[in-house]
User: Which sequence fits this backbone?
């Protein structure tokens, strides 16, 4: 028997042993003690053995000021809730391919959906990029489906569309908006291009936006990852994304018994990759950085 791997003290003991009922039943039979797999299964259950998937829980690295930033975000949320100002959790969901391509999940039907026997990207009819905006106060999510690239301009255009058509009607007396974001992606904390597009956004909508980034390796704590995206996935699981209209209709069905709702829109603009920040932006940047952890906390104020 091979015990836990050296250097991984948190791994289960005997991780390489096959504990399947059929294997144990066969081994016991060869040793002269025949036992059926059903009996072995009951014995395993009595001893707290069960089928488990690999748990993705080991942090890929450590973030400086991790706890301080979580306390920061907690304080920001309280301040905005007390003032009646909106708090939005922002992120991009995994890209999806359109076409007769297999998707995980099961649904109640008399016959299964039919998909290609291989998932070659070249067989897809297109690509959709779901950018999510989750309103913590109203428990409502919105998705803008992009059709080209996940860029900082796409993320800002996504919120611009949402705010002009939905957000400002829900918050007519807003004085500031709080975004909760990951550290990377289209709203990367280290990219001046995002800050440039953010400044243009607040100039257009006329409302200050405060950004609070979750520490690196902590994206799973962003509320949209727990309160909205899983329910979007549930509404769509096992269904073919054969057309763009199908994706829109399926995602609009996202609901929970606790009142979660969803709206969906398609942004057809083409976004180029490889854009460069304006040469004079950094020198003339008007983004206001906090004294505490400025890389993760700053405000864009309308000019």
Assistant:
């Amino acid at each position: 028997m091979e015990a836990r791997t050296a250097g991984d003290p948190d791994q289960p003991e005997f991780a390489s042993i096959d504990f399947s009922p059929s294997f144990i039943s066969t081994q016991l039979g060869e040793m002269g003690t025949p036992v059926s797999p059903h009996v072995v299964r009951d014995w395993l259950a009595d001893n707290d053995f069960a089928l488990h998937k690999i748990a993705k829980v080991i942090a890929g690295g450590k973030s400086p000021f991790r706890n301080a930033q979580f306390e920061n975000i907690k304080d920001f949320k309280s301040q905005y809730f007390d003032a009646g100002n909106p708090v939005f959790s922002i992120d991009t969901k995994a890209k999806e391919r359109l076409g007769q391509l297999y998707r995980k999940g099961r649904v109640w039907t008399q016959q299964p959906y039919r998909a290609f026997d291989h998932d070659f990207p070249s067989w897809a009819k297109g690509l959709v990029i779901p950018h999510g905006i989750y309103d913590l106060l109203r428990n409502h999510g919105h998705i803008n489906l992009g059709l080209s690239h996940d860029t900082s301009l796409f993320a800002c255009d996504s919120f611009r569309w949402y705010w002009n058509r939905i957000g400002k009607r829900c918050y007519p007396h807003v004085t500031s908006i709080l975004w909760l974001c990951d550290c990377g992606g289209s709203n990367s904390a280290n990219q001046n291009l995002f800050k440039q597009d953010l400044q243009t956004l607040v100039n257009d909508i006329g409302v200050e936006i405060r950004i609070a980034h979750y520490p690196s390796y902590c994206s799973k704590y962003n509320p949209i990852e727990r309160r909205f995206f899983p329910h979007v996935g549930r509404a769509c699981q096992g269904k073919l994304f054969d057309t763009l209209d199908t994706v829109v209709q399926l995602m609009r069905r996202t609901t929970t018994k606790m009142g979660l709702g969803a709206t969906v829109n398609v942004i057809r603009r083409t976004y180029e990759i490889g854009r460069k920040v304006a040469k004079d932006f950094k020198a003339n940047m008007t983004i206001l950085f906090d004294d505490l952890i400025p890389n993760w906390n700053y405000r864009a104020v309308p000019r």
Q: What stands out?
A: Confidence is low (pLDDT under 50) at residues 1-6.
